[in-house]
Amino acid sequence: DKLYVRKEFHGCGIATALMEHAVEQGFACGYSSLWLATNSYNKRALRFYEKQGFTPVGTRIYYVGKTRNDDVVLEKPLI
């Protein structure tokens, strides 16, 4: 449900390996695509997901208390 890598390990390939495993599992389970969402201000995450083949397909807004959160929803087809 969440994918985080500690800051001191950014750029080491850990996130790529974890994402590749998630894609392999989705494909093995017969899913046609994977979806995820990240905060629209998280430019680092957006660049990473787009490099992994995800494309923006929409947005979602949700609130935690009175704090508004704006997410970008991305999808990766599993072909």
Structure description:
This protein has 79 residues and is an alpha+beta fold. Helices cover 30% and strands 35% of the residues. It has helices spanning 14-28, 43-51, and strands at residues 33-39, 55-64, 67-77. The chain has a three-stranded antiparallel sheet with strand order 1-3-2. β2 (55-64) and β3 form a beta hairpin.
Please provide a brief summary of the model.
With 79 residues, the chain is an alpha+beta fold. The protein contains 2 helices and 3 strands, in the order αβαββ. The chain is globular.
Q: What gross morphology would you assign?
A: globular
Number of DSSP E strands: 3
How large is the radius of gyration? 13 Å
Strand content: 35-45%
- CATH homologous superfamily identity: Gcn5-related N-acetyltransferase (GNAT)
